[in-house]
Amino acid sequence: MHKYVINGNRPLYGEVDISGAKNAAVAIIPAALLVDGVCRIENIPEISDVTLFFSILEDLGARVKVLNRHAIELDCHTIRSTRPSYNMARRIRASYYLVGALLGRFGEATVALPGGCNFGGVRPIDQHVKGFTAMGAEVTVESGAIHAVAREGKLRGANVYLDVVSVGATMNIMMAAVLAEGNTVIENAAKEPHIVDLANFLNSMGADIKGAGTDTIKIRGVAALSGGSYAIIPDQIEAGTYMAAVAATGGQLLIRNIIPKHMDCISAKLREMGVTIEEQDDALLVRRDGPLQRTNIKTMPYPGFPTDMQPQIATVLALAQGTSLVTESVWSSRFKYVDELKRMGAQIQVDGKVAVVEGVDHLEGAPIQACDLRAGAAMVIAALAAHGTTEITQVQYIERGYEDIIGKLRAVGADIRLVDEPDPAGTVQQAG
Ligand code: EPU
Questions:
Q1: I need a labelling partner for 77 at 20 to 30 A (CA). Which of 152, 306, 378, 410 fits?
Q2: What is the mean pLDDT of each run of 10 residues along the chain (432 residues)?
Q3: Quick check: is 284 in a domain?
Q4: What is the structure's pLDDT at 428?
């Protein structure tokens, strides 16, 4: 266990290289279970959620060869079990992808119900189940695990209309469908960049998926996927987090190794707040030297403003002139972090799905905690901008999704350090 100690009120200057996308990696790595050959995957973020996935796959019988910090070779033709370790799978939200991948390849899967960041209630998976069932699977939940079995030994293609736009259900049904008999159509599909990335990965291994990135995804089942090589896209949310950080502190950052188009929804809002953003081929130059202006934010599925940037942007708005409204429309409750920001002097009132943010002149350092991954990122941003010293505990949440956040921030002038501390509670970690 450790905590971050940050001396704030310093502008950030320099360059930050963005890592591979967490939410693409945690889908693509289990999707390798569908591949009957060796896949080489590059631009993998070095974060604890990914490391946990490697352990889960190894435990199932896969050969995992680490080529370097960001590249691995996975050989899943040696898989001997369709029951991932309960204790490992329950720690990670994205373990639900093991159901789609194992069911699609072997016709059955038994996987612990997923954990994940708690956004104020149970995170349902009914749309995943709806898809598997339409494809001929029988899905039951017993003793804390999802058990799915293809009634005819193999799934068959189906038309699935999603009642809610779900990233996880879209990816999971896509995985289940690539080796199914016949065609699958997913209507009202999610369109996030990591959906397109998963489809590109699977297509590069021999799948036949069309329409990823639109509302309708069509998958023609193929007999087998063979190996290949693939590089994961850059992390939109990590990039957005550094953009928000420089907006809060002032200064100038060149955010490199990104796809600027993926950042449009975030850039548009930061520009409204008075931040200057210049686009380059695979980088954004982000500068803030004047005062921050108020604006309103409403989270939406892509290409709307991402819910995974809501805590970070609300933290910047806490320092803007005037009153802003932040509406969370993806999750029923994602404002737990507001109480921590209030300890630092932020003036925010939450009423259901809306936070009313009254900008203050500055925040003051305080002992605070990360209550989940993106809330933790917001705490780091608040601390970087605040006057005085902030100590952030529960930082294991942050490390599940941000590669080397300390090193990257120190390189651009932040005064942030990691301090070891005992963990009396022995907390179970969950994220994503
Ligand atoms: N939903 C249902 N039924 C389902 C699935 C989802 O009602 O079967 C609802 C959810 O309750 C929520 C909405 O649909 O209100 C969207 O949920 P979605 O399924 O899209 O979320 P997810 O797949 O569980 C992923 C990311 C989250 C991110 C959301 C939304 C991963 C591992 N997680 O979760 O990322 O917030 O999409 O973009 O990809 C994070 O990275 O911090 C994080 C939490």
A1: 152
A2: 96 98 98 96 96 96 96 94 94 93 97 70 85 98 93 97 97 98 98 98 98 98 96 98 98 98 97 98 96 98 98 98 97 94 98 97 97 96 98 95 97 97 56 53
A3: yes
A4: 44
- Ligand 1 nearest atom to the CA of residue 306, by list position: 38
b/e code 30-54 from CB counts within 10 Å (16+ = b): bbbbbbbbbbebebbbebbbbebbb
| Long-range Cβ pairs for the range 425-430 (8 Å, 24+) | 427/394, 427/396, 428/91, 428/115, 429/48, 429/91, 429/396, 429/397, 429/400, 430/91, 430/92, 430/93, 430/115, 430/116, 430/117, 430/118
Owning domain of residue 303: 2-19+234-420
- Any ligand 1 atom below 6 A from CB of 127: yes
Whether 117 is a known active-site residue: answer: yes
Residues 327/297, Cβ–Cβ less than 8 Å: yes
Task: Please state whether the peptide bond connecting residue 45 to the residue before it is cis, i.e. omega within 30 degrees of 0.
Answer: no
Domain boundary among 193, 221, 249: 221
